[in-house]
Amino acid sequence: MKLFDSFRIRFEKREKIHPLSHFFILMASLLISFIICAVMLLALGFNPLNAYFRMVRGSFGSISRISESLLQAIPLMFCALGVSVSFKMSLNNIGAEGQFMWGAFAATFVVLYCPWIPERLVIPAMFAAGFLAGGLWAVLAAAPRAFWGINETLITLMFNYIALRWVDYWLYGPWRDTATDATNLPYSKPFPPQAVLNPIGDTRLNNSLFIALAAALVILLFFKITVRGYQIRVIGASQKAARYAGMNIAANVLFVMLVSGGLAGMAGVAQVAGPIGRLQPAISNGNGYTAIVIAYLAKFNPLIVVLVSIVFGGMSQGGFSLQIVKIPPQIVTVIQGLILFCVLGGEIFSRNRLVFTRVNASDTREAQK
Question: In the predicted model, is pLDDT for residue 241 greater than 60?
Answer without folding.
Answer: yes
